[in-house]
TrEMBL record:
It holds the Pfam family APH. Residues 34-210 form the Aminoglycoside phosphotransferase domain. InterPro entries: AGP_Transferase, Aminoglycoside_PTrfase, Kinase-like_dom_sf. It comes from the Bacteria. This is Phosphotransferase.
Length: 248
């Protein structure tokens, strides 16, 4: 019998791997609903859905390896990153999902609330938080909605050689800012942005991508801390925020 591997587990959800099957356990059925709907219409490779019995969703493993992990250099080739960029462009050019995404006012309110929490709890120097809040402002502008993945972490894109074999974890997919997806995939891997954009093509605003690096790191930090993760690990969110001080 295959061993059970705990891929990720926290108070909101858990993902287990048994052989070539991933079991996603989530107390909120809307997350699985969104994931199933998004994978059904996404124009790029996604995992096969094997069965669903709430609160469990079973999906097949995709071949290949993740582009990398946060906090470590990516071993994937430049061509693999370019292939990921081309796949993301295909997604962003697809018809919008028929459900709403987050609005600009929601993003701005969350940013302000999380910055206030970070300052009140002293988890980072105030100058670092204020500097990144200034940089994040560039992301707070109207955007033309695109079909975005919404949580395009580097561990969610799988490649085999120079080919994208699958993109996983679609529960946050919705209409949104295309630059957000590009920023999340390259968070902590800024040196691979040029490779990614080689495949993605024109129409990219690098200032907005940099703004999303800061914004994402600011708003994610409290959740990570409260759910047992460490945003202060080497190469992770706090390092991303500190690195912006070098731009002064």
């Amino acid at each position: 019998m295959d061993e059970v591997e705990v891929v990720v587990a926290h108070s909101q959800r858990a993902t287990l791997r048994v052989g070539d099957v991933f079991l996603k356990v989530d107390g909120d059925p809307s997350h699985a609903d969104a994931e199933v709907r998004a994978m059904a219409i996404a124009p790029i490779p996604t995992p096969a859905i094997l069965w669903r019995r709430p609160p469990v969703l079973a999906i097949a493993a995709v071949p290949g390896q993740a582009l990398g992990v946060l906090g470590e250099p990516s071993a994937a080739s430049s061509a693999a990153w370019a292939a990921a960029g081309a796949a993301i462009r295909m997604l962003h050019d697809a018809p919008l999902p028929p459900w709403p995404g987050r609005g600009l006012d929601d993003v701005a309110a969350e940013l302000d609330g999380e910055c206030a929490w970070l300052l009140a709890n002293g988890v980072l120097p105030g100058a670092v938080i204020r500097r990144n809040r200034e940089i994040a402002e560039a992301a707070l502008r109207p955007w033309k909605p695109a079909f975005i993945h919404g949580d395009l972490q580097i561990t969610h894109v799988f490649v085999d050689g120079d080919e994208v074999t699958g993109v996983i974890d679609w529960s946050e997919a919705a209409p949104g800012d295309a630059m957000f997806d590009l920023a999340i995939l390259t968070l902590g891997h800024e040196e691979r942005l040029d490779d990614l954009l080689t495949g993605y093509g024109p129409g990219v605003d690098r200032e907005v991508i940099r703004a999303w690096w800061s914004l994402r790191s600011l708003v994610a930090s409290r959740w990570l801390i409260e759910h047992g993760f460490d945003p202060d690990a080497p190469g992770c969110e706090f390092d991303v925020l500190r690195s912006r001080m070098q731009d002064l």
